[in-house]
């Protein structure tokens, strides 16, 4: 399954100006907020979480909240995702990949998720 999201970075800039740090905590954990360098980084994180929820086929809502998806970085600075146990179990997640990019006034993220078919899970 693949999900993609695009956000205009000025939208995130206005969000952060209006609500300050509270804006970030609406969709990021304390550890994720510590990774945010500016509104462009925050935009990429927003797009990543939206793309992940779209790859799951549910969007952000009762089945998948922003806080069920955690962004962290490798030692080399590459973004990675960690999903809550709820998501891992409910969607039979085997593996996932993420790519975030910025160009001009936009941030884009793509998430690919590999999941086990429900009938295969029952046989295991």
Short description:
This protein has 124 residues and is α+β, with helices and mostly antiparallel strands. 40% of the residues lie in helices and 31% in strands. The radius of gyration is 15 Å and the shape is globular.
What does this protein structure show overall?
There is one protein chain. With 124 residues, the chain is α+β, with helices and mostly antiparallel strands. It has one domain: 4'-phosphopantetheinyl transferase domain (Ribosomal Protein L22, Chain A). The chain has six helices and five strands. The strands form two sheets. The protein has a three-stranded antiparallel sheet with strand order 1-5-4. The chain starts with a strand and ends with a helix.
Major β-sheet, in short?
3 strands, antiparallel
What are the secondary-structure elements, in order, as H or E?
EHHHHEEHEEH
- Count helical runs: 6
How would you classify the helix and strand content by structural class?
A: alpha+beta
Helix percentage: 40-55%
Unreliable stretches, pLDDT < 50, 5 or more residues? none
Question: What would CATH call the class?
Answer: Alpha Beta
Give the full name of the CATH homologous superfamily.
4'-phosphopantetheinyl transferase domain
Bulk shape: globular
| Quaternary form | single chain
The CATH topology is given as Ribosomal Protein L22, Chain A
Number of self-contained structural domains: 1
How much strand?
A: 25-35%
* Distance from first to last alpha carbon: 22 Å
Q: What's the CATH architecture?
A: Alpha-Beta Complex
């Amino acid at each position: 399954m693949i999900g993609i999201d695009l956000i205009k970075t000025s939208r995130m800039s206005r969000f952060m100006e209006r609500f300050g740090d509270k804006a970030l905590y609406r969709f990021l954990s304390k550890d994720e907020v510590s990774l945010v360098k500016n509104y462009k980084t925050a935009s990429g994180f927003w797009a990543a979480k939206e793309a992940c929820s779209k790859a799951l086929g549910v969007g952000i809502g009762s089945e998948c909240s922003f806080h069920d998806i955690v962004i962290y970085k490798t030692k080399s600075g590459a973004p990675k995702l960690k999903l809550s146990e709820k998501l891992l179990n409910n969607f039979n997640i085997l593996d996932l990949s993420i790519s975030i990019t910025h160009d001009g006034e936009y941030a884009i993220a793509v998430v690919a998720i590999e999941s086990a078919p429900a009938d295969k899970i029952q046989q295991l």
